[in-house]
Design brief:
Elements: H1 5-9, H2 11-30, H3 43-50, H4 57-64, H5 68-88, H6 92-107, H7 122-135, H8 146-153, H9 169-208, H10 218-224, E1 243-246, E2 254-259, E3 265-270, E4 276-280, E5 291-293, E6 298-300, E7 307-309, E8 315-318, E9 330-332, E10 338-341
Antiparallel strand pairs: 1-10, 2-3, 3-4, 5-6, 6-7, 7-8, 9-10
Length: 343
């Protein structure tokens, strides 16, 4: 008799979830920016963003933020292990259960601020993993490596065995944990080496991107953003203490970066009509810092493509973000043009 049709029906879900988690884990290790405590796209920056919206904020601050790189590495390894377990069938139910737990964790952090809730991707991932954990693999497409099978059938040493019987189900689980762990580490080492090789290439591309500066000529801002990517903003030199920009030296359609008292990145924008506005530059989707794009006049997130209109209170003009950027109250000295944070 062939396998139950239910298990065949679950194969697309199994391979989709397994493949996506394997890809997510490898992507974190290949990304030259992710495994860092600070900087755009880093796990440290993401954890800091989660503390603004997540109900797990106290736990993030105590157990995750002090060791961001370790947390990021652990998350990547768990995702790789879950993906391999689902795809190969090794520790299938346990892998699916861990996948459901990780999806719940992502739901309570990365997706918690997504409104309405059905826009969040982690909820269906969690339900899918729970379904696989309850159903099991049905023995369908389960990898049975000869070495693992041989070790599983071999008797335990006399000093370890209770009665000298062949390997028990408990020993089988231990062997499968070892095989899955070894495969996870091997995949992680290869991915990390691959990332180190290509990391300088990515870094050079980012560094070579033209930037807009508040002291540049009026046409420079438009030219800098011609690629359509967010433009890295600069802080004008020779600012007095407390100043975050100078409205008189900033050309129209340019921006300057600064740091808020909370530690969040901030951005000052001089609009095409000469008005100066400021916002918290942390994207309200997953916390990446936004940059100013001269040609469009928008604030763009380089991580997931969200766009905000600084001329209209930073409302969202392109998702996946759902909330506008937080406005920063500023004061402008009419004599000197000094821009300072007020309040």
């Amino acid at each position: 008799m062939g396998p139950d049709p239910v298990y065949r029906a679950l194969l697309p879900l199994r391979f989709f979830l397994g493949g996506m988690f394997l890809y997510a884990g490898l992507d974190k290790l290949v990304d030259p920016a992710f495994l860092a405590a600070t900087g755009p796209g880093s796990v440290g920056e993401q954890l800091a963003a989660f503390t603004h919206v997540s109900p797990l904020t106290p736990f993030i601050e105590v157990f995750a933020q002090p060791w961001p790189v370790a947390v990021g590495l652990g998350m990547a390894l768990l995702e790789i292990a879950v993906g391999l377990g689902a795809l190969t069938g090794i520790l299938y139910r346990a892998s699916a259960a861990v996948g459901a737990g990780l999806s719940l964790l992502f739901l309570l952090t990365a997706s918690w601020d997504t409104r309405p809730i059905y826009y969040g991707p982690d909820l269906p991932y969690m339900v899918g993993w729970i379904t696989l954990a309850l159903a099991g693999s049905g023995g369908l497409y389960v990898l049975e490596d000869r070495l693992v099978d041989r070790l599983r059938r071999a008797p335990l040493p006399a000093t370890l065995a209770d009665d000298g019987t062949p390997a028990s189900a408990g020993r089988r689980a231990v062997l499968e944990v070892g095989v899955l762990g070894a495969a996870t580490l091997a995949a992680a080492v290869v991915a990390r080496a691959f990332g180190r090789v290509l990391g300088p290439v990515f870094t050079q591309e980012v560094a070579a991107a033209p930037t807009a500066s508040p002291t540049a000529a009026p046409g420079a801002s438009d030219e800098a953003g011609a690629s359509g990517a967010p433009v890295a903003s600069g802080v004008a030199p020779s600012l007095a203490a407390g100043e975050i920009a100078n409205a008189q030296s900033m050309p129209a359609r340019s921006a300057a970066d600064f740091v808020l008292a909370s530690g969040d990145p901030g951005i000052v924008v001089k609009l095409s009509d000469g008005k100066v506005v400021a916002y918290d530059a942390t994207c309200t989707h997953e916390g990446c810092p936004v940059g100013y794009d001269g040609p469009s006049g928008l604030l763009l997130c380089p991580c997931h493509g969200a766009a905000f209109d600084p001329s209209a209170e930073a409302v969202v003009v392109n998702g996946p973000a759902r909330r506008p950027l937080a406005a920063v109250p500023i004061s402008i000295d009419p004599a000197t043009g000094a821009v300072t944070v007020s309040g």
